[in-house]
Amino acid sequence: MEDDEDFVDLYAILQVDPFCERLIVEKAYRHFAQLYHPDHSDTADVDKFQEATRAYKVLKDPRKRADYDRAYATEKGIDPAKPQPRDDIVIDGSTAVEDAEIHEKLLLALYKRRREKAGQPGVMPYHIQNDLDCSDESFDFHIWYLKSKGFIEITQESELAITIAGVDHVISSSRAEAKEKLFLEQSKRDEAE
Questions:
Q1: Which of 4, 7, 154, 182 is 20 to 30 Å apart from 48, CA to CA?
Q2: Predicted model pTM
Q3: Residue 20 pLDDT > 90, yes or no?
């Protein structure tokens, strides 16, 4: 990079992590080159195609990439030798369990609302989100999932309401939980004897 040039985030152009391997850079480039290639009638974009090609030419070459990474680190204020944690993609089994618990809480709240106020079963989303203490992105994920499963719907008033499938799910889950509780109590009694 020349000193008089504005800094260009090549990683952002290819939408890759700055600490990714060369193979990822290559795959990203192929994707964007194909997407923006002038011969691709639906998505052709010569400027974006050339941008992606310039980014790839730097990032595929180990020496050029090392030089660029030093400039990138200076621009972004990071230590180039120390990979940054990727909180946005760290998902493990406990995340899925937490999500399942949130889904159950959300469905139970909507189930309770429909049972108590059958004529007005909807709840404004921000009330539920506040009760669950979810970020906007997390809440959007939960709503997307439950809506896609057919467990909730969005009413004409833009409220959340549980569906018949959602009610059935809550009842089924409650029965399974009750059976498990009885089984555990029975096991404890058997062990005590």
A1: 4
A2: 0.51
A3: no
Tokens of 76: 């972004």
Closest-CA residue to 46 (of 54, 34, 55, 36):
36
- Cβ atoms < 10 Å from Cβ of 190: 8
Q: How far apart are CA 126 and CA 139, in angstroms?
A: 9
Distances (CA, A) of 30 to 24, 36, 85: 10, 10, 26
Give the HSE-up count for residue 93: Cα atoms under 13 Å, Cβ half-sphere: 0
H or E element: which one contains 160?
strand 160-162
pLDDT tens for each residue of 134-178:
888 889 999 999 999 999 999 988 899 999 999 999 999 888 888
Q: Are 70 and 97 in contact (CB under 8 A)?
A: no
